[in-house]
Amino acid sequence: MLSRTRQIVTMLLISICFLGLQAQETRPNGLLLGTAWYPEQWPEQRWETDLSLMEQAHIHVVRVGEFAWSTMEPAEGQFKFGWLDRAILLAAKHHIAVVLGTPTAAPPAWLTAKYPETLRVDEDGKRAEHGNRQQFSFSDPLYRRFAAQIAERMAEHFGHNRNVLGWQLDNELAAPSFDASSKREFHRWLQQKYGAIGELNRRWTTSYWSQTYDNFDEVPVHSKGENPALLLDWKHFVTDTWISYLQVQIDAIRPKVLPGQFITTNTMHWNEGFDHYLLHKHLDIAAWDDYFPDGHLDPLLNAADHDLVRGYKQRNFWVMETQPAFVNWGAVNSPLPRGVTREMAWQAIGHGADAVLYWQWRSALNGQEQYHGTMLGADGLPVPVYGEIQQVGAEFDRVGGALLESTPKAQVAILQSYDSHWAIDFQRHSQKFDYVTQVTDVYRALKPIAQTVDIVSPDADLSRYKVVFAPALNVMSNSVAKNLIEYCENGGHLVLGPRSGMKDSDDSLQVERQPGPLAAVLGGHVDQFYALEKPVPVDDLTASPGNVHGMTTVWAETLVPVAADTSVILRYGKTVEGWVDGQAAAISRPVGKGLMIYVGATLDSDLMKTFVGQVLDDAGVAPILDGLPQDVELMQRVKPSGDRVWILINHGINSEHIDLKHDLKDLLTGQKGRFLDLLPHGVAVYSLAGAQR
Ligand code: GAL
């Protein structure tokens, strides 16, 4: 018999093998519940009690070590890992495995005092001080040497510990530094990219405002207010710098650890600080931190967030942190209502998470986060939400096996582009034009119909999707344009949203009108764009039985059909200003075996629903389970065999009666039948044999 700990390690090895690495044994369970635990903050005699309470909550993984640099290396070159050995061993006794965090988000005082050049400098030139965290410069070579050293020492020490599942590098990569080394590196990076300064001048159009540079060192280092080409390159540089910052640690860890130990980092919501697709090419799995500071879960936004993170590697992921009821950093840190902590855990699983970890187990007695939600109180005893999380743990244990090797599989995708996000933010033109809102507005209409949605990079392989939406794909490189044209020619239905194809990969204006390199294939183009003060009426000409009227609220582009087979599908109504009256708001043209649509308006939610519904209808995309009440979300995970698991959640505050259209047994309650009455915040899990279509 394998011990429970051994089982968990095995499970992860198989999980990683499922993700494309080495296969070892059979994974006995599919889901992990966990918590962030900071043993260094507590007397060692207390650990046993903590771990017993965790075990009672069905916790099988703890994340330890992140932020513990001053305990692991109390003085330069003096490493102390004995305490962590003992913590890991004791955790194993309680059938709890470990994710080790490298502590590099919190350098010790001896380091920053002796080597102040390792400290981050903000854009206004102010150097960070000790006392908070993330005070390091991401580009400083000396800091990287210290980071590599602690990572390597940890890897040497723990890399063959079979109770270590994997590694989290740093914590929530966030603020770039504008110190001397960052400036030097940025100039070197530009030189490498452009070769000669003349090439940079040409591509950035620096004759504008006499910006012409004579050498790379003259280029300013800023993240706002500059030439958009410079700003975009700064973002690319920041991405590359974070990648190389992590790579230093990956290179230190990888050769020293068991092949099954994964390497990841934890990311934040729609954080646009760097290109997450590029960064995740260097990591084994994606992991993110899921918080609703005001305590009000927005189920569709959270769903989109999970799908965004699943898209980083187009694989299952971890929720590395989430709130036990409430946080401490919002304006009003109200708790999630009873049942919603559990609801969020199951929603994560439905969208492809294989682990959910709570932040944190117990508040440190002092420190900046004393008020944050926890599982234990200051007295070391469970707080009310402990019971709800314990229920999640028991449920994961019970039904996790049914989800083994399953993952969501979508027929539709939304393209999410960091370049476009950045380019729009540099010059929003209307403060109301928010890139993430553009993406999530489409998602909100799409998700209830398609039920499984992928959010992926514009250069992803799109061949598996019947429909692809590209809201605000502002920056369109030639290679992305080629990907999109091929997709349509091979039968895909592509819907481009407002502001698409305006810029090239240097953030220069395309010399063709929007959508630039797609205009010829679309057989039409944007004549002019307008930021709107007031909503403008839009008619959907294709809706049946009759036209549907709606509004565009933020943006209006007038479109001109050029090719004979390009048709107008949305048209603007009458306005006071008159510029858009009666003109096309969306056009559509058959392309190869597929279709290309361009929508130049930001549709209100009702019109968006009608429009998206028609697009899906035309492409033959139907709901997995039709007729669900509005507040009920269906999530489907599919196994390699084609067998499926359904997770149904009632996000509403009323009970809902659901026709499952099959006789099914709820794996959580054992209740059988075709009809399900789902309580507010209720969850049901079903296993269905055989592929759906
Ligand atoms: C996260 C962070 C954690 C903790 C948490 C509190 O952003 O990674 O260390 O501070 O917030 O909500």
Kindly list the characteristics that best describe this protein.
693 residues, alpha/beta, TIM Barrel, Rossmann fold, Immunoglobulin-like, 3 domains, 11-stranded mixed sheet, 18 helices, 21% strand, globular, binds beta-D-galactopyranose
Notes on the structure:
By secondary structure, the chain is of the alpha/beta class. The protein folds into three domains: 2-174 and 249-403, Glycosidases (TIM Barrel, Alpha-Beta Barrel), CATH 3.20.20.80; 412-619, Rossmann fold (3-Layer(aba) Sandwich), CATH 3.40.50.880; 632-688, Immunoglobulin-like (Sandwich). The protein is 32% helix and 21% strand. The chain has 18 helices and 25 strands. The strands form four sheets. Strands 10, 11, 12, 13, 14, 15, 16, 17, 18, 19 and 20 form an eleven-stranded mixed β-sheet that branches. A nine-stranded parallel β-sheet has the order 5-4-3-2-1-9-8-7-6. A three-stranded antiparallel β-sheet has the order 21-22-25, covered by helices on one side. The protein starts with a helix and ends in a 5-residue tail after the last strand. The relative contact order is 0.08. Residues 12-28 have low confidence and may be disordered. The structure holds beta-D-galactopyranose.
